[in-house]
Amino acid sequence: MDVPIEHIVGTAALIGLVISAALAYKTILGYVETSILQAQLRQIAEYISMNIVNLISLAEFAYGNASTLTVMVKVLKLPTDLAGEAYLVRLVCEGGDCYVQVELTTRSGLSTRLPINLSSTGTRVIFITGEVQLPDHTIKPSNAVYGGNPNAVVWCWKNGSDSTCVGIGVWMGGV
User: Fold this and answer.
1) Which of 4, 14, 96, 148 is most open to solvent, judged by the fewest CB atoms within 10 Å of its CB?
2) For the chain, how are helix, strand and coil distributed in percent, rounded to 5?
């Protein structure tokens, strides 16, 4: 049986078309997935930034110029993962500006950084991006927490009347 050359060319063209359609689908799917993950990272950063600003405002409202040392804590309700991937939340301070940075641990290029808007607080704020000893020993301050940790917190330490220290960490007492 002789197979005409047209059938061989046609079969090869169909195989090439199926392969190119599959590659195009995979590329488009990857782009959509990355866009969705980027939006979710931004929402988490906005949530944490908003909680930091609200906690500072609450400390200023509640304690104002009081000279007592007061620690306030807000437990963060973070998703356990994003599309099955772990993520990390950091406080980053560079050049006098502070940011909430949320990044996937498995993809180095996928992260978002959102500035913390302190214009509404009107107080001197010191961001603690490392470990510090707080008067409340149930909080372990850190510069980063893993997303989904049920004990992840934003804390605010009203350090007398002159400043307010803020950071993220883990509540050792449990939720």
Assistant:
1) 96
2) 35, 35, 35
Write out pLDDT tens, residues 39-97.
999 999 999 999 999 998 888 787 766 666 678 888 899 999 888 889 999 998 888 78
Contacts of residue 87, defined as CB under 8 A and 6 or more positions apart, other chains included, come to 41, 44, 81, 102, 103, 104, 105, 146, 147
The CA distance from 52 to 88, in Å, is: 17
Residue 154 near residue 59, CB atoms below 8 Å: no
pTM: 0.81
Please give the residue range of the domain that contains residue 99. 5-171
How many domains does the chain divide into? 1
Terminus-to-terminus CA distance in the chain, angstroms? 77
